[in-house]
């Protein structure tokens, strides 16, 4: 007979040990669904703390299915939920940065708030998601790139899907998910859809031992560096402990309206990504170069924004990025 656990009152910020035990009870199925919904909603209504986010991430990390990764591997992903319905920026950035010689363990899922998530678009490009999961360690070693499908590596979250759908709004797990890469990367470019949450997420990353990171939010509420306006950034660890504000023009990139990178369904986004890797100029390319420059700084490949954008552009223009994608699909 399963023991029913009681959750603490979410109205008051929780200590690390209390929060970690609460999330362990939730993830292990010891709490009724109505109690989970009330707890998660209560946390969201008062805004989760860095301690609670880190504790939830620790609990989820202990229950994920891990993969080996080479030293220096990075991840590029965001919390989603920005409502921009843009093309798949982080997916394209992952391919381009891997083509620059930086191992990328791309963590992602199917669409939640958009028409095409990373998994949907990669599948439309021809990647067999089941095989990609089975060969993730091999492709990361051989190609410097893998896709870690969240629903495959986080079975504990599967039990919460009905509760999260019933809540109908973001919960702490939207923030925690990107912090729980199954390759246990310690270098990360993470987008957050709320600028006022940057410091909270940075605090959680610090508690979790992040080695190098940028937490970014576009001024428009994007969970990535904005191609339209400026973006707030908090740097952690090896890439510098500081805050900054970066606009496309600061990196030698022309700004574009957000409508210029608006996406569609998986087939639409896959076609756009293919054209991008074949050298098509425009807003999508520029958005990818901007975010790739950030990822290359996080990875320690460069410490200069313009240099990072130039390195990424070369990986596209010499065909390396497209060739890498095709090798990955054929693996």
UniProtKB/TrEMBL annotation:
EC number(s) recorded for this UniProt protein: 2.4.2.18
GO molecular function: anthranilate phosphoribosyltransferase activity
Organism superkingdom: Bacteria
Domain Glycosyl transferase family 3 N-terminal span(s) in chain numbering: 14-63
Coiled coil (UniProt feature): none
The reaction(s) this protein catalyses: N-(5-phospho-beta-D-ribosyl)anthranilate + diphosphate = 5-phospho-alpha-D-ribose 1-diphosphate + anthranilate
Pathway annotation from the record: Amino-acid biosynthesis; L-tryptophan biosynthesis; L-tryptophan from chorismate: step 2/5
Cofactor(s) essential for the protein: Mg(2+)
Ranges of residues in domain Glycosyl transferase family: 73-321
Binding site for Mg(2+) 1: 90, 224
Binding of anthranilate 2, residues: 164
Residues the entry annotates as binding 5-phospho-alpha-D-ribose 1-diphosphate: 78, 81-82, 86, 88-91, 106-114, 118
Binding sites annotated in the UniProt record for anthranilate 1: 78, 109
Pfam family, one: Glycos_trans_3N
Cofactor mode of binding and number, as noted: Binds 2 magnesium ions per monomer.
Chain residues that bind Mg(2+) 2: 223-224
UniProt keyword list: Amino-acid biosynthesis, Aromatic amino acid biosynthesis, Glycosyltransferase, Magnesium, Metal-binding, Transferase, Tryptophan biosynthesis
Class of the enzyme per the UniProt entry, highest EC level: transferase
InterPro entries tied to this protein: Anthranilate_Pribosyl_Tfrase (IPR005940), Glycosyl_Trfase_fam3 (IPR000312), Glycosyl_Trfase_fam3_N_dom (IPR017459), Glycosyl_Trfase_fam3_N_dom_sf (IPR036320), Nuc_phospho_transferase (IPR035902)
Family to which the UniProt record says this protein belongs: Belongs to the anthranilate phosphoribosyltransferase family.
Chain's role: Catalyzes the transfer of the phosphoribosyl group of 5-phosphorylribose-1-pyrophosphate (PRPP) to anthranilate to yield N-(5'-phosphoribosyl)-anthranilate (PRA).
Binding partners and assembly: Homodimer.
Protein name per the record: Anthranilate phosphoribosyltransferase
Gene name of this polypeptide: trpD
